[in-house]
């Protein structure tokens, strides 16, 4: 039509650089097809669920550090989902990790409430789960679950034996005068607590007064008005601090007349604290002893601080970050042994192969498909206002 412009030449008619032409009837040079290529080695992806925010948000340091340590190792990836310290958010978080991020396994939900709320879900999906914990409960006995815990009951049995020794030393110091109020064991009646109290009962101590407390109870129950020789408190950091304060406030038992009156020293306080917790959470207690399974010598702590500065410069070093470092190291070793593109069976097999493997942060691990007591040693650590002031040698944890 009038005013129309000539069309630009199409790309199909643009001159091309000359190329050598194959002779007629020459078969084409075979090319390597994509289907012949090796499958791409993609890192195995794990999902972690934990409290990054909310009342227990400080515990999220464990997952943050573990995630950074795994990323540093390069053998896999951890995707962390925040549950906001709310049990109702754990199953939606698990579904999101499985459906959106296509995780191959879960890395420990870490705390009792995610474990309890995820148990039916994990039983249905059978998604493999790897965890580093301190309590062996029914949730850790499935064929698709592998954990790295020191036995909660075994560690408490070690504490009970140490209490027995302390009481004997006190009796000897007063020329054989028998223990007045004996030993009190005050424990919170949860799955964690029932596991820990089993260790005390196995120890078979004499002169023990045992008191169970419901988790929602506001009161601090004390079985007497005079302080005992020793007390073992089993529960959350908050409950341990509350009960310890009440026990230490009791008057000491005294013997003899006015001229020869002898009063017992303040009771020795021991604690089996539900993990995870930071020693600083026990700072209100003047002195107590706990069982510990992490290496805390000066050289190891300095190395941990240096690594933490490299992977997460903004994270304050604490026992929680030390625990996250240990979890990251164990996970790294599992991922390294499993290799890339590892499915659930290969991950569980790699975890079960960690016999006698040891990091700088943990005593030697021994684990197989039927063994849920793999960390076999703990140390008794004395804490003063939340700071470690003494540590025993490694003590064997009794086997079931």
Structural class: alpha/beta
What is the typical, i.e. mean, pLDDT? 80
Give start-end ranges of low-pLDDT stretches.
1-23, 26-33
- Please count the beta strands (DSSP E, at least 2 residues each): 15
Q: Helical stretch count?
A: 9
Oligomer: single chain
Rg from alpha-carbon coordinates: 29 Å
Q: In a nutshell, what does this entry contain?
A:
With 400 residues, the chain is of the alpha/beta class.
Key terms:
disordered N terminus, 9 helices, alpha/beta, 15 strands, five-stranded parallel sheet, 400 residues
Topology (elements, then pairings):
Elements: E1 44-50, H1 60-73, E2 76-82, H2 90-99, E3 105-107, H3 112-125, E4 129-131, E5 145-147, H4 152-173, E6 183-188, H5 191-203, E7 208-213, E8 230-235, H6 237-248, E9 254-255, E10 262-263, E11 268-273, E12 288-292, H7 298-311, H8 319-338, H9 344-352, E13 377-384, E14 387-391, E15 395-396
Parallel strand pairs: 1-2, 1-3, 3-4, 4-5, 6-7, 6-8, 8-11, 11-12
Antiparallel strand pairs: 9-10, 12-13, 13-14, 13-15
Verbal overview:
- The protein has 400 residues and is α/β, with parallel strands linked by helices.
- The protein is built from 9 helices and 15 strands.
- Strands 6, 7, 8, 11, 12, 13, 14 and 15 form an 8-stranded mixed beta sheet that branches.
- Helix 5 links the parallel strand 6 and strand 7.
- Helix 4 packs across helix 5 and helix 8 packs across helix 9.
